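Fold it.
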Amino acid sequence: MAGETKTKTSARKGLRVERVWTAEGVHPYDEVQWETRDVVMTNWRDGSINFEQRGVEFPTTWSVNAANIVTTKYFRGAVGTDKRERSLRQLIDRVVSTYQKAGQEHGYFATDQDAEVFGLELTWMLLHQVFSFNSPVWFNVGTPSPQQVSACFILAVDDSMDSILDWYKEEGLIFKGGSGSGVNLSRIRSSKELLSSGGTASGPVSFMRGADASAGTIKSGGATRRAAKMVILDVDHPDVEEFIETKAREEDKIRALRDAGFDMDLGGKDIVSVQYQNANNSIRVSAEFMRSVEDDTEFALRGRLDGSVVSTVKGKQLFRKLAQAAWECADPGIQYDDTINDWHTCPETGRITASNPCSEYMHLDNSSCNLASLNLLKFLGTDGSFNHERFVQSVEFIITAMDISISFADFPTEKIGETSRAYRQLGIGYANLGALLMASGLAYDSAGGRAVAATISSLMSATAYRRSAELAGIVGPYEGYARNAKPHQRVMQKHAAANDAIDTLGSVDAAIKVAATEEWRRGNEIGAKQGWRNSQASVLAPTGTIGLMMDCDTTGVEPDLALVKFKKLVGGGSMQIVNQTVPRALRTLGYQEEQVEAIVEHISAHGHVVDAPGLKPEHYSVFDCAMGERTIAPMGHVRMMAAIQPFISGAISKTVNMPESATVEDVEEIYYQGWKLGLKALAIYRDNCKVGQPLSAVSSAKKEEKAEEPAEVVVKTEKVIEYRPVRKRLPKKRPSSTVSFSVAGAEGYLTASSYPDDGLGEVFLKMSKQGSTLAGVMDAFSVAISIGLQYGVPLETYVSKFVNMRFEPAGMTDDPDIRLASSVMDYIFRRLALDFLDFDTRSELGILTSAERAAQLRAEAAGETDVDLTEMRNSAPVEKVEKPAEKAKPVEVAAPRAVGSSTELLELVQGKAADAPLCFTCGTKMRPAGSCYVCEGCGSTSGCS
């Protein structure tokens, strides 16, 4: 096997390292072509420059986005000084030299030559984006700052005021460094229990307020990103119902305050008045509780001091409350306690009670985990094979480096440092799984896709633990191994047994499984004799910033976000491109180049593969994405997680996206299946469950009046009187106006004629050449609408039916009042509404002119609770179609909407707003990355990276 031939353990207690990626006598830097670039980062919202460094050096193969993110995030030294790093060489050398030197000092290598080869191999892999360490390594290693290498932390809180105050302090120190932490508050006695003084306890939810305020303050004080934290409560805690409903109640408060005119957007000036917004909440459920849900029996809530039953609840009813709250606001998530601890390698030391903010790291209290992720697409051959030998060799190098880092690392608290050094938790993982599967011609939600993902995950963890066992023979097992030897070996056997149970469906996954089986066998053999160097080896993190650094199309275990993406260009600007994985997948599926070009052109125009020329319907699923026309079903995400989980030491950071139409029962089913399928944690997000709509000042009085009006139907016992509409024809000479328009480049003309009393009575549409099918359909449509208007169909009825209709062409228009249209019909009826309907009617339909929207924004900025409708009416330009001479001077056409990220690009294609927040650093809309968000503009994340 590769591990036997390339990296061996010598009799001199040190690793003998042979070359894998490099060639003797050639430095990795000499194999690539370098170029200098200027990195100027502007705020997408106002155009102001928030970072500038010119003359930075990167390989020509690195994208503009990757170079920008590395320059702004990871280069150290004051900008504008000689101490500032300016080349990727300096960054890699700073980190790799520190690892190489520490490895030599702590006895990892047999000779200095082995250490040198090790350093060159790491350099080559980092240079060619084969893998990346997590962000704290790039921030801190090799600098005068504390050498913090971990991104994930778990704290502990006991039932005492001293411990609670320590929690606030420790959490603040972690946030200050830009990392996140998780904590389980279940040891704190409930609000239904007494204090020793005789008073009633406050309960954990009350103490969450103080921690939340602290996190918000540190965030606003200038941390590198939003404070990321996880708060967990056990399902048998007497305050569990209050905890479940906490964030849902706050979401109701946000709605009420927003309706009153307060700025409640993410980052808004008034959002700070709402509590519990800086944490992800999760409920830790037990198998006993889940069985009570199944059997619809009573479940006991127990006191924290003596375990006595404080009250009982119906398990099914409590589970329903959990699902209801998650449906309303995406919190709480769920963690499966028995599953987590069944796979725990160190139960003799203590149970696993909590996780980091993104739920991928789960281990002992007061511990940390440093992460690194491989770029899976780098191992996919042009023939569709997966180079598992190179993969094994790469994992060996990375795990060795990660373990070396613990030897020199600093930690935010002494307690965390002691636990981390004694148990040496690592978190190797990967990114680009979604791209790998698509490029292989496999659907994400398919048995074949899950088999490949499972075997790769198994091979990664097997190799990591085998290398960990080899390191134990050189530098010793982790300190806590002796007392946990039996449970650790038991978990290793569970992993190996799960590997044996994988059903392979193709030659690729079958070959990977053979390699994984051998790695588990060898690793368990060595470990039984020497122990293991690490109590944990693998997790699947969101890979937000580092995924962008490696130019990955997909993050963590996620599928592709969409088939079109946003790409920055050298020299500034951006463009829309079809993901490069798509043509590779089409070639894998057997399509010829002409067909590939036609399909890619269709995707570029429409954003999806439906009805793409020449694409077989059975191949549509290969191109299913997390968002867009064809989305992966929620259970598709859950099944992928279930396929991978048995081969991951920790857990998986991933949010299961659900459509807005999903029900509470759907959420219950997802949470229930997560338990049945053996997941460790699960979180859901239902589209638009968070408050995101703009301020609406339209009075509902008019709607209520309409609702109260009875239908005018006259019924008599003798006969029924039927009223027929009468057509009111327009006079021979009638006022009219013609508007030229352009929707996503498709041009046309709209002619609207009105009655002398200023009511619309006729519409004509001109598009395409005379005699074409489109021209004929438009003529027929115009006649149908015109006759309906003349028979008395209200224009607002047509507007309500045709506005928001979505089909191509869709996108930017040349009308300053209607910046974007989801179709030609959407534009036409918005234009007719603006020209012929009164303000109140249009307001109910959500159609305002640019001047009216500006007046609304001025009212919001002034902090008004009610928008001045009179001022908005007066601010609107009045057009009278019967007197064309009175029209105002031509209005300057607004610039097309700028696109700052792939999420915004997808909004243009879909014609609706995504729920992702705006980046606090540069204002760009972020995109999902696991259970967090990442900014494609500057690389900032809302969690681990």
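DSSP finds 30 helices and 25 strands in the chain.
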